[in-house]
Amino acid sequence: MKKLIGLLALLSAFPPLSTDMYLAAIPLLVEQWHEPLATVNLTLVCFFFTYCCFLLIYGPLSDRFGRRPPLLAGISLYVLASLFCALAGSVEVMILARTLQGAGAASASAIALAICKDRFDGQLRQRIFIQIGIIVAAAPMLAPVIGGWIIELSSWRLVFLVQALMGAVTLVGVLRMEESLPSPSSEPLSRAVFGYLRLFRNSRYILLALTYAVMGIPFFAFIAASADIYITQLGYSERQYGYFFALNSFAFMVAPIAFSRSVKHVPLMRLLPIGYLGMICSATLMTTHWLPLPWRIALPMWLFTFSFSFTRPPGNNLILEQVDTDVGAASAFMVFIFFITGAAAMWAISLDWPDKINTLGWLGVAASTFTICAWFLLTRLVRLRLP
Q1: Which H, E and C letters describe the chain, residue by residue?
Q2: Which one of 74, 98, 116, 344 has the lowest number of neighbouring Cβ atoms within 10 Å?
Q3: Domain boundary assignment for the chain
Q4: Closest C-alpha to 361, from 295, 282, 290, 276
Q5: Could you tell me the CA-to-CA distances from 383 to 12, 168, 196, 280, 321 in Å, in that order?
């Protein structure tokens, strides 16, 4: 089981590994290719947009043909696209290559959660989600540090060669993995797509998925703006930026541990609102000028990331607990709506804001307020199925 959990964690880590290693190169590419930040950031936005669209494709495919075939196809595309990124000579080529990379990476995220749903049940699945969350937390913590060192000592192109190697290792793991869906759906693929329509009739699932999607908007905005803030505005090097980003990502690791200990003593339905409240408080702190730079962004964003990561693994499990069929589609749509709103946030924060830290703070206040209000309304309108 440990090998399977490790493989699922690696599959779940594809998005942060595909972006965070590359973030430190964005200011460098702005200067090297003489392009505005909003244009270079399209390499992030297009990655996530295509990633989101293909999530909706891989979900029904995995329900119809099993988990392994679409995973093998998607990861193979990811490896080729990563090599294409390493050879890019202009921002246009990079945008195209990152678009293809996103199409391949989507297979990992869409199907990893479905495999977890296939193999594990209820409380065990919640514990597995938390374990995966802790392992995955190492990706955004280590990736920017590794990326900063690679860029400073060698070239940004080597970052994508490392990503191609990661994809190749994952491909071997999937080849050795047993199929987790022994009885795929027998209905035609055209009818399998209608699984999304069936999901929309599940009000518990849809309302929870939308609530958790909005919650992630400030975090994605931070990913897109962090390199510009730390490197361009505050003057830190790529390596120093990697340390700041890794410090923030450390919250991803400690938050699931804190949740796993807390849930033994406090019911799930009481713990989740505590995390939402923490997000509101930390985002509000970012809108003030009480702290000197860079701690005005570093400390509140660490607290926000901790609160966000405290609620996300159990939230994912709670969402999937609301469905019995079309699990691949449910997993794909849950990740789709989360990342498509994140892609929109990445585009919005790339605009020419006079104070991006203040903008991030107010974005966090708005998103967190919506989340906690939607949660209390949701729990009174429908009866959720608990793990």
Answers
A1: CHHHHHHHHHHHCHHHHHHHCCHHHHHHHHHHCCCCHHHHCHHHHHHHHHHHHHHHHHHHHHHHHCCHHHHHHHHHHHHHHHHHHHCCCCHHHHHHHHHHHHHHHHHHHHHHHHHHHHHCCHHHHHHHHHHHHHHHHHHHHHHHHHHHHHHHHCCHHHHHHHHHHHHHHHHHHHHHCCCCCCCCCCCCHHHHCCHHHHHHCCHHHHHHHHHHHHHCHHHHHHHHHHHHHHHHHCCCCHHHHHHHHHHHHHHHHHHHHHHHHHCCCCCHHHHHHHHHHHHHHHHHHHHCCCCCCCHHHHHHHHHHHHHHHHHHHHHHHHHHCCCCCCHHHHHHHHHHHHHHHHHHHHHHHCCCCCCHHHHHHHHHHHHHHHHHHHHHHHHHHCCCCCC
A2: 344
A3: 2-177+190-381
A4: 282
A5: 29, 44, 21, 26, 12
pTM over 0.90, yes/no: no
Q: Where do we find the tokens 């990811």? A: 78
pLDDT tens, N- to C-terminus, the chain (387 residues)? 667 777 888 888 887 888 888 888 888 898 899 898 889 999 988 998 898 888 788 877 887 788 888 999 999 999 999 999 999 999 999 999 999 999 999 888 778 877 887 777 767 777 777 777 666 667 777 788 888 888 888 889 999 999 999 999 999 988 888 877 777 666 666 665 677 788 888 888 998 999 989 998 998 999 889 989 999 999 998 889 988 988 888 888 788 889 888 988 888 888 999 999 999 999 999 999 899 999 999 999 999 999 998 998 788 888 888 888 777 778 778 878 888 898 889 889 988 898 999 999 999 999 999 999 999 988 887 788 776
What's the rounded Cα separation, in Å, for the pair 102 and 116? Answer: 22
Residue at 54: amino acid letter: F
CATH class of domain segment(s) 2-177+190-381: mainly alpha
